[in-house]
Amino acid sequence: MGRAGIQLLFAGTIFSSAFLLFLVQPLIAKQILPWFGGSAAVWSVCMVFFQAVLLAGYAYSDWVARHLRMRAQAVLHVGLLVASLAFLPIVVGAQWKPTGAEDPAWRILGLLLATIGLPYFLLSTTGPLVQSWVARTPWGTQVYRYFSLSNLASLLSLLSYPVLIEPFSTLRQQAHGWSWGYGAFVLLCAGTTLYMARRWPAEVVPPQPAGQAAAPDHPPRPADYLLWLALPALASWLLLAVTNHITQNVAAVPFLWVLPLSLYLLTFVLCFESDRWYRRGVFLPLAAAMLLLCAFGLQHSIGADVRTALPLYVSGLFVLCMFLHGETARLRPGPRYLTRFYLMLSLGGALGGVMVGLVAPHVLAAYYELGFGLMLTALAAAAVLRRRLWLRVGCVALAACCTFFLLRQIASDNIGVRSLQRNFYGALQVYDTKRDPPSDSTRQLAHGSVKHGSQFLDPARRRELTTYYGRTSGIGRAIAAAPDGPRRVGLIGLGAGTLAVYGRGGDVYRFYEINPQVFALADREFSFLRDSAARIERVPGDARLAMEREPVQGFDVLAVDAFSGDSVPVHLLTVEAMDAYLRHMRPDGVIAFHITNRFLALAPVIDRVAGARGLHAVLVHDLAEQSDWLHRTDWVLVARDPRALAREPIRSGATPIATQPGQRPWTDDFNNLLGALK
């Protein structure tokens, strides 16, 4: 085999492993989401598993490359590759479905380990291990270009899943397709391994390539290890912090998270492809400017206005990651220490993710991690530029400026704010808005840029309906059209508890809410629940899971109010979810879906799901012109009996739903959020 063929073999093995590694994460997580609920905790546990196994794979690669001869590596690795085929296809077994009595975190970790544990581990090992083999060849000094290639594969995998794979295949088809792809990877990787063991059983000294700076081959110093860890950790930190900021505080747009992640991966591709893309003289002043602008924006209106904030923070992330990854690439060691270098990079990326994803929600009351990340990045720049005193002093001064703006942000967030709380489900803010006359003053509940309820402060107006829940809205009409007598009403999503205003004596209003902090805020800061004449029942946790396990409730009306913003709980919009709702409905009951959304057209989705079960659906579009305190809303009302939708006042406000030809009903096995974009 010639040189070009050998390099193609290496490139194909590394590319396929990175592509499959990135692709399996949403695929496997979507399989289990309906079982464990659409909570952030499910995604967090999945990410902990993926990061832990990735680190284990990098540690394996480092140990094997340093302690085993090539032929011993081949025997071990090929044996593991063959054994991993026993895990195929990667379809989660029904025996892992939770019963409700066990700790879901441990069950998720167990099923992930049993379903994809060894394949994911081996995919994680491929990049660093194969690159350590490349270092044995005569062109080993070009080895870091393969790291660039692996990140390019990750980027392509990221973009291809929502665009090319998810819209056209079911989860089962995706799992089987991935499994076939993994089988091809096993053949390719085993072939590469055996070829290396035969052709280069011992290390050779590669010549210096033209046009590329040589990486030093001396043993790394402790300071090098620290920077290998810190710089990627800060890049990962900034990625997640910027994503949180633009999706929660700026614009709740579906798929907006793809943009920062794509730019993050692109900086890896550029910085490790060759030395031509990163120039310290260019990116250092750019990074300094972006640090100041981004920090300033956190406490100024430009940081919240989508027209300025989105380009500012997205471009800022790109520049800062170019600086952090570019400096990391400048510190790369010789091929002899390659696996240790990648292990530290992986550990740093995981550390940044843990700090923002797991630690910050517990210790920070709001999304302040971006401000901390900017400050730490300035200090990291001072550490990198340790040989130039004036630059170090400038970086420390820059860190001080970032700290000042962070403190200003924290102070401004607490002006007029009654409560600021955060957990895995996001940051909740309760604040008062004073108006003239004082009787128009309100108290509001917000989650980032999305408002979830409002109540008048004037005791005489506390029971007035506000925001999305007026009497001419879909839910208002559905409740008014319900049969006389005591009513049972189910509500998925509590917010401030506004819908409790509709409760009459003898009624039962049963609220399902996944975020425990929302219950506490609704009780402490708002009076809708305690002022209601109805009996209020509370069900904490994921609504679908609760409804699948609890006795039949016999609802006259069920309000499903959980689809605002960019985080749409898809598992509440599938045929299987509709089955769970129908189990609790009276024959003439009405299910009301709140679908007010600037970016997603969910009415045709619900219409298709309803049609799959022989149900009837109408759209109620309310302009809310009768009050300044009500918002325009869209509700879809679904019923078994068409006569339930012909009752007044539903009939006078209902319109048919314009269906989209060829749209498939969403199920747990198939759903396509991209296809629902307006």
Task: Describe the structure concisely.
The chain is α/β, with parallel strands linked by helices and 678 residues long. 55% of the residues lie in helices and 11% in strands. It has helices at 3-36, 40-67, 70-84, 104-134, 144-165, 171-199, 222-250, 258-273, 280-297, 306-330, 338-363, 369-384, 389-413, 474-481, 516-525, 528-531, 543-549, 575-583, 603-612, 642-645, 650-653; strands spanning 417-423, 426-433, 442-447, 450-456, 488-492, 508-513, 535-540, 555-560, 585-594, 616-622, 633-639, 654-655.
Could you explain how this protein is built, in words?
The chain is an alpha/beta fold and 678 residues long. It has 3 domains: 1-203, Growth Hormone, Chain: A, CATH 1.20.1250; 221-413; 463-676, 3-Layer(aba) Sandwich (Rossmann fold). Helices cover 55% and strands 11% of the residues. It has an 8-stranded mixed β-sheet with strand order 7-6-5-8-9-11-10-12, with helices on both faces. A 4-stranded antiparallel β-sheet has the order 1-2-3-4, covered by helices on one side. The radius of gyration is 28 Å and the shape is globular. The protein starts with a helix and ends in a 23-residue tail after the last strand.
